[in-house]
Amino acid sequence: MRFDDTVTRRLRRGLLDRGMTLATLLAEAMSGRSGVDERRLTALGVGGKPGMTLREKLRWALDRVESRRRLLDARDDAYGRCEVCHADLGELALGEMPWADRCRNHPD
Ligand SMILES: [Zn+2]
After folding, report:
1. What is the pLDDT of residue 108?
2. What is the pLDDT of residue 1?
3. In a domain, 105, yes or no
4. Is the pTM of this model over 0.85?
5. What's the confidence (pLDDT) of residue 9?
6. CA 77 to CA 67: how far, in whole Å?
7. Considering the domain boundaries, does residue 90 fall inside one?
8. pLDDT of 3
């Protein structure tokens, strides 16, 4: 594991918070009476693939956060690395976005 316990705890907290934010928005979107729109997702940095609905984008983002959390909890070395080239994303970038899974050369 590349991160000490303090950093790992902070990253985990950040992942849980992000998951909570996304889950709350997803629940809102599911209720059908929400103010969840593309603009809000963009502001949160939630991407997605062309043609995805708001709910699908939220679900997709949530799944990715969860899979990152599982890697972190398993102390898997893949956590904090780009999914494509395996470059280390660095503690600084992960501090800002613990759910990051791509380097800048491999955006979604
Ligand atoms: Zn990469």
Report:
1. 77
2. 59
3. no
4. yes
5. 97
6. 13
7. yes
8. 92
Number of domains in the chain: 1
Amino acid 66 reads: E
**4's tokens:** 């000490």
Domain that holds residue 64: 5-96
Helix then strand count (H, E) for the chain reads 4, 0
Contacts of 95 (CB under 8 A, 6+ apart): 10, 11, 14
The residues placing their C-beta within 5 Å of ligand 1, an ion, are: 82, 84-85, 87, 103, 105-106
Our CA dihedral for 48, 50, 56, 62, rounded to 10 degrees, sits at: -10
**Going along the chain, which residue ranges are E strands?**
none
Q: What averages of pLDDT result for each successive group of 10 residues across the chain (108 residues)?
A: 90 98 95 86 91 95 97 96 96 95 92
Q: Using the mean position of ligand 1's atoms as its centre, give its distance from the Cα of residue 82 in Å.
A: 5
